[in-house]
Structures are given as C-alpha cells and as structure tokens.
Inverse folding.
C-alpha cells in the first residue's frame, strides 16, 4: 500500500446484471455476394470465405471472395457510371448522399448489432460512436456537394475519376463512410473493399445504397482479403487509391503504384503520445488515459498508446489508473455494460500477446487487473507497462491492442523530444490546466491530431490524418475533399 491510498476512488467492486442488446431486429444472410453495377452478383470463381464472430469464433456468414475478374467488372461499372455521375449537379449528388445518411440512421440499431457481432467491439461504442459518426459523415459531405466552388474559390475543382478504396477492420462502417462520403460528394465513382474480418456492415450499407436509388455503378463493393486489395491497387483503370490500414501495406501500395498516373492517400498506423502534466485535473486525465488506450480494445490508429506522466504526479496517476483498470468490464460485446470487447481476430490476438511477451522479456514491469475472461473467443486483459524506455519495442511499434507503455518526464522539452521520437505522427493528447502549454505543444508535436484535455474525439468537420509513416492526405472537413479532386 502506498501513501496515496486515500485517493482510491473505486474501492467497491460492483457487479452488474447482464444487459444484452437484442438481436431479433437484425437480418443476416447466410451468404453475401458482391455489389457490382447496382446488383448483388456471384463471384466469378464461386469462392466464398467465412466471416467469424470474434467473441466465440463461430461462423456468421459466407462472404464472396473477389478475384481479378470481379474487381475488373467493378472497375468497368464504375468507369461507365463516372460520366453521368460526375455530370450531375452537386445539388443532385447531394440528395443521394443525404438519403444514404438518413437510411443509416433508420437502420442504426441493426448496424450497431451487426458491427459488434462481426468485429467484437462493445455495443455501447458501435451504438453511440461508430454508427452515429458514420451517418454524420454522409450528412456532412452531402452538404459540401453543391458548394465545392466555395470550398476552393477560383480553382474549378474536378473529380479524379474511378477511386479504389481499401479499409481496415477496426471501424468498419465508419471507415466506409470516411471513404465513400467525400468521394461521392466530389463526383467520383468507387470500388470499395472492406476488411476480410468485418465485411458485414459494408454489405448492409450496399443494401442501403441500392435502396437509395443511387445510380448503378457509382458505388461497387467487393469483398476479399489482401489479394483482392492488391487487384484493386494494381488495376490499370483506377485513377486513385485511398487506403487505411497497416504501414506495411501502405508502403507496398506506394511502391506498387509508383510511376503510374494513380493518385494516393494513406492513413496508416500510429503510436500516439498522451502527455499528462502535473497541473492537469488528475481524475479527468485518468479517465482520458483509459479512453485513449482501451477504446475499441486499443484497435485504434490514433490510440494514446504511449503515456508520458510528469514525474511529480507519476506515482499518483499510475495508482489511480490501475485502480480504474480494475473496474473495466471485459466480455460479451453485445452486453451494454461491456467496456472492452473481443479482439478482432485470432491473428491480431497473437500479435498483441507476442508484444506483451516482448515487453516482459525486454524488462518492462507489467500490470493487468484480475479479470474473468470468457472461455471461448479472443480476449486480452487491459495491460500497462512501466519501467520502459524509448528503445523498447513496445514503446516504438504499433501494437493495436489494449496495451499501454508508460514513461515519465521532467521538462516540457524532454517530453516533446520523446513524444516526437517515433516513426509515426498521427495523434497526441495534452493534459494541463494551462492554455499556453497546450498551444506550445500543438506547435511542437509532429502529429496530425492533438487533443487537449480529452482524447479520441472525432467529428466529420474536423480533418484527420498523419505525418511521417502515419501517411498523408486528410479525411474529414474541407481538407477531406481535396484528395478526391483535381484542380
Ligand atoms: P492490413 O493493413 O493488412 O489490412 C487493412 C486492409 O488492407 C484490409 O482490407 C486488407 O484486406 C487490405 N490489404 C491487405 N494486404 C493488402 C495488399 N497487399 N494490397 C491491398 N490491400 C491489402 O492490416 P492487418 O494485417 O489486418 O493488421 C496488421 C496491423 O496493421 C495491426 O496490428 C495494426 O498495427 C495495423 N493496422 C492499422 C490500422 C489503422 O487504422 N492504422 C488498421 C488495421 C491494421
Ligand atoms: Mg468477423
């Protein structure tokens, strides 16, 4: 016991009754085909793969695996649709995008449950964050569709053409919205590929897009794994690739399209620094640390996975943090009380477990609260490491799981140096009562997004994107129109 024991705020361990979200209102088909040229069609080679529920590793549905022939059909449909879609007035394009936004809202409960079933995230997050933000993104860009000349005065922006979009599994519907909405508003046509572990909400979105009456061929959704993604990247009639995912695949794509006419935007990994100064509101900062690293099981490119605490308050913050971690509820993603759901795939679980081993082997001191992890499914207890330094792999590399690496600092210069000492540059957080410190740090930190006294806040109107190996191009806001326009 330390002298700070009085600061413990969560002395009791509460038990909660189960509060499962109903599943009666959702419809999941046994088998999903490809959405090409306004219709659902079988894959040419007739091959399907399983999408799994990561909370029990049971199969949910069969999903079509696209080969080159399918991607080619999708690209041809998009090419054919481009002329008339880009020729519509912005106001007409906006009407369809508004319609998609409203249909997402109408089906929000269904989307939320399917998202949690297929990907493992807590229903509270899919219900309150992913799905509302996805609808909001369509609303936001629908509003820009007829105002592009005001966004870029005197520059007469034009759509790029046929866009290939490849998205990851951590925010499946939201990433589809981030990709589709600005591309549609600017008059492009699209071939989109969701991630292989989480294709179901994108396919549900395809149904909505069909219902919306969007002209056929404007949005095509093809499913499959990395090979299908590579077919999109390498297709000769695609004008632009927009990718969100690992830095490794981002580098592959950049090489693959080098020397072609294709444009590129990349949103890749991160190792965000979350910085707590001694004058911060400590309890709020502790809540912020929890949100920064344990939101969505830590499967977040902008997660605050490196914590820097000013030395004078380090002991107190770490103690409070451990105390708060003891209260986190890990388990059934469909339970409304759940804080941390299932790890998205067995592959990702192995990656995270391997990093935890590396952390221990390199001399880090690990802390995990006691928790009853369910027997079936992919689970990882919330984890923190102290006694680590800049050279530790768990401090430098993206883990993409609920694992926090904690360091301390004394001076502002020291923390700026440490925070910037990473190949990434996506996000950061600053906790202090002093506005001047916040402004000083926002100038000095190399990160696309810097939150002050909060973390992991997203808004359709706010640009998001990285520096260095976190990628280039911005999504959201007026800036998010640019990667889909030529001038
Ligand atoms: P990934 O980068 O392989 O997957 C992202 C998307 O890219 C998926 O749709 C996948 O099918 C596609 N893809 C894979 N190989 C491709 C290729 N050669 N050409 C075109 N598309 C391709 O990510 P993965 O393997 O699932 O996760 C590995 C690590 O990547 C994670 O541990 C995490 O560190 C990082 N990651 C980062 C994300 C982010 O948002 N920053 C999202 C997903 C993963
Ligand atoms: Mg799945």
């Amino acid at each position: 016991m330390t002298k700070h024991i009085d600061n413990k705020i969560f002395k009791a361990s509460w038990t909660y009754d189960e509060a499962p979200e109903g599943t009666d209102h959702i419809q999941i088909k046994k088998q999903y085909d490809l959405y090409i040229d306004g219709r659902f069609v079988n894959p040419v080679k007739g091959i399907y793969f399983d999408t799994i529920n990561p909370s029990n590793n049971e199969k949910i549905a069969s999903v079509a695996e696209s080969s080159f022939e399918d991607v080619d059909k999708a690209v041809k449909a998009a090419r054919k649709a481009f002329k008339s879609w880009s020729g519509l007035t912005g106001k007409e394009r906006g009407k369809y995008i508004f319609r998609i936004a409203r249909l997402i809202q109408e089906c929000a409960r269904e989307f939320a449950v399917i998202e949690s079933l297929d990907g493992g995230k807590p229903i509270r997050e899919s219900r309150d964050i992913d799905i509302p933000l996805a609808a909001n993104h369509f609303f936001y860009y629908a509003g820009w569709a007829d105002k592009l000349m005001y966004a870029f005065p005197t520059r007469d922006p034009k759509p790029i053409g046929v866009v290939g979009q490849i998205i990851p599994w951590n925010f499946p519907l939201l990433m589809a919205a981030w990709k589709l909405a600005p591309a549609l508003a600017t008059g492009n046509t699209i071939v989109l590929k969701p991630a292989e572990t989480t294709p179901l909400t994108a396919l549900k979105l395809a149904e909505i897009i069909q219902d919306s009456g969007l002209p056929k061929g404007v949005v095509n959704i093809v499913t499959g794994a990395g090979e299908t993604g590579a077919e999109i990247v390498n297709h000769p009639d695609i004008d632009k690739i927009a990718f969100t995912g690992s830095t490794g695949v981002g580098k592959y794509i950049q090489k693959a399209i080098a020397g072609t006419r294709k444009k590129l935007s990349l949103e890749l990994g991160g190792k965000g620094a979350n910085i707590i100064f001694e004058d911060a509101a400590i309890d709020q900062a502790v809540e912020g640390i929890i949100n920064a690293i344990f939101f969505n099981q830590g499967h977040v490119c902008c997660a605050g996975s490196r914590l820097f605490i000013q030395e004078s308050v380090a002991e107190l913050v770490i103690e409070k943090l451990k105390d708060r971690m003891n209260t986190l509820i890990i388990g059934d993603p469909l339970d409304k009380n759940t804080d941390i759901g299932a790890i998205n795939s067995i592959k990702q679980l192995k990656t995270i477990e391997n990093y935890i081993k590396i952390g221990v082997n390199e001399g880090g001191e690990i802390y995990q609260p006691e928790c009853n992890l369910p027997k079936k499914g992919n689970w990882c207890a919330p984890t923190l490491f102290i006694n680590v330094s800049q050279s530790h792999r768990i401090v430098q590399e993206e883990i993409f799981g609920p694992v926090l690496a904690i360091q301390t600092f004394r001076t502002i210069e020291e923390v700026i140096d440490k925070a910037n000492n990473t190949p990434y540059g996506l996000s950061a957080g600053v906790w202090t009562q002093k506005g001047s410190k916040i402004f000083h740090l926002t100038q000095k930190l190399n990160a696309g997004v810097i939150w002050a006294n909060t973390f992991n806040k997203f808004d359709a109107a706010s640009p998001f994107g990285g520096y260095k190996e976190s990628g280039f191009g911005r999504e959201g806001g007026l800036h998010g129109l640019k990667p889909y326009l030529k001038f």
